[in-house]
Amino acid sequence: MTNSRMNPKVDEYLSKSKKWREEFEKLRMIILDCQLTEELKWGVPCYTFQKKNIVLIHGFKEYCALLFFKGVLLHDAHGILIQQTENVQAGRQIRFTDVQEIVAMETTLKAYIYEAIEVEKAGLEVNFKKNTEIPEELQNKFDEIPTLKTAFEALTPGRQRAYILYFSKAKQSKTRESRVEKYMQQILNGKGLND
């Protein structure tokens, strides 16, 4: 059964998938039924509407999931959308552990996908919270070492945010200070927290 919307790169990805292959195949069919364009982005099947990301399929050790890029804007009538971590602002997942769950939810999944397409058609945007309050300990280092500030500002917004969240999470000033010290060279090298 071939579908003109099937992307050969995704075929290849699925042929190499060991753990969630059956689930991925079923999710793929459901999504393609919704007339989305299939691509391989970030190494996983991603589905777009007029070049805008709508949903992607990804697998983890314990579950596989549909990730809605603007899931936070969906009504979630069935209460099935999951926020991966507290720092994820826009994306929401629906998780599965076996293909039967997917089959049983097909109608619901399509409704959510169609709603996600409508969100995109309406041009709705997620209002991201700017939690870029630079911790005092980092600001002190910037004042002391101007090249550190320059290097930090050259990082992508996501990398800057990851550092700020990591430094700010420490409750004590001396812990924040030691974290800043520890990652100074990495920042100067233009690397993110997890690079």
Question: What keyword list fits this structure?
Answer:
about 45% helix, 2 domains, Aspartate Aminotransferase, domain 1, about 200 residues, single chain
| Estimated radius of gyration | 20 Å
**Number of separate structural domains:** 2
Major β-sheet profile: 5 strands, antiparallel
Low-confidence stretches: none
Terminal CA distance reads 41 Å
Counting H and I runs of at least 4 residues, what is the number of helices? Answer: 8
Query: What structural class results from the helix and strand content?
Result: alpha+beta
How many strand elements?
A: 5
Going across the major beta sheet, what is the strand order?
1-2-3-4-5
CATH topology of the largest domain: Aspartate Aminotransferase, domain 1
Strand content: 5-15%
Outline the structure in words:
The chain folds into two domains: 8-121, Aspartate Aminotransferase, domain 1, CATH 3.90.1150; 136-188, no CATH class. The protein has a five-stranded antiparallel beta sheet with strand order 1-2-3-4-5. It has helices spanning 8-16, 21-33, 99-104, 106-121, 136-144, 146-154, 157-169, 173-188; strands spanning 37-41, 44-49, 52-59, 64-68, 92-96. With 195 residues, the protein is an alpha+beta fold. 47% of the residues lie in helices and 15% in strands.
